[in-house]
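Input sequence (433 aa), recorded before submission:
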Amino acid sequence: MKNTQLLNSLRYVLFGALAITTSAVQAESIAITNATVYTVAKQGILSQATVLIEDGKITAVYAKDEVPASLNADSTVDANGRILTPGFIASKNLLGLVEVGAVSGTRDGSAKKADITFDASLAYNPKSTLIAYARKGGITSSVVMPHGGEKVFTGQSFTVNLSGEFDSVIASQNAVIAELGASRKGSRATKLQTLANDLEDAKKALDKIAKAKAKSKTAKKGKETKEAKPPSRSEKVMYALLAGEKPLLAYANRATDILALIKLKQKYSLDLVLVGASDAVLVSDQIAKANVVVMMSALDNLPSSFDSLHNSLDNVAKLTEAGIKVIITNSGESHNINQLRFDAGIAVANGLEKNTALAAITANVADTFKLNSGRIAVGKNADLVLWSSDPFEISSKVDAMWVNGQAMSLQSRQDALRNRYTQQSNMPRAYTK
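Predicted structure, token format:
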């Protein structure tokens, strides 16, 4: 092509892709030096600190006075005092399952006949154009939560990293999703009753299995014992819930629904996470006492239904002050995920301490979903973001990002479109019939 600028742009993209591929093959060790490190761990905030990365893991975090005279690393990145944080973890979204919300053929986040076994990770598209767009907001991984069908249990969540690779699903079927509350038809009581009955039936089945196993051990030698029927797929998921192996992500807003869920948690020792929880401020003491995590948006400040009359911008701060672990979720499904840092910033502007806000989109998510990320500490995955300035400020941007220790491109489809229509080219200004 004759256009010099276009050729230079192509060379830049190819060089960046080559650099990322080369680093992945060689698995270079990296030293990020002179950084203001927000560890979200015991070390707190470190000035002029150094972080070492090797084989995708963080191998050392040195405070200023601990940095050795020589660093054994293949490459060095001088942060020049800039802020280094753990990569942000998005949640409660359909990233990789929806490309264009208005085009049904690109929506894989729900199914009418879905039940507790629904595993939407099978449809996850790591090449979605929204992946690179989300990375521009400092997002390095995401807990994707499909909507499911019309039953109480609507499926299971899964976690991905935002490397854009085909093996980027970190964990599939890692939590069970239940939707409670008001119904267009019928009573909310039906959903609560169904949930309670399903848990009770599963508990009885497990007790029966345990008794059968105990009986078989004491049976006389040579006497045949009747083997128990293998559990169904749905039963296996219910058993995992009762064993605490999978969290229950329960959508509920009204205080009465929240209290009913807390009773079920206490009765069956569930690992309960409240999603939405608009009325949580009314029963914050009970939630804190039951050690229940709350997953909520920091932007909900107006009632969207009679179940959400207590939405407020300071709810996250109030719940945190009450001793509740809060996860700040996105306000959109897929396309606004890169704005998660702004949501956290709004929570800060309404009373939430800044380090607590950072934990609400990193460590709290990692702890809840048992992820080896969310903190800058030895042994954690090297999911890191280097910022131009305060990540909660609108004017700041991502200067560099690593996922599993590999440098990520910060270019998105939106950047390509901007360049296409702001630079001179032999191509037409717009396509016509």
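Checked by second reader. The first strand starts at residue 30 and ends at 38.
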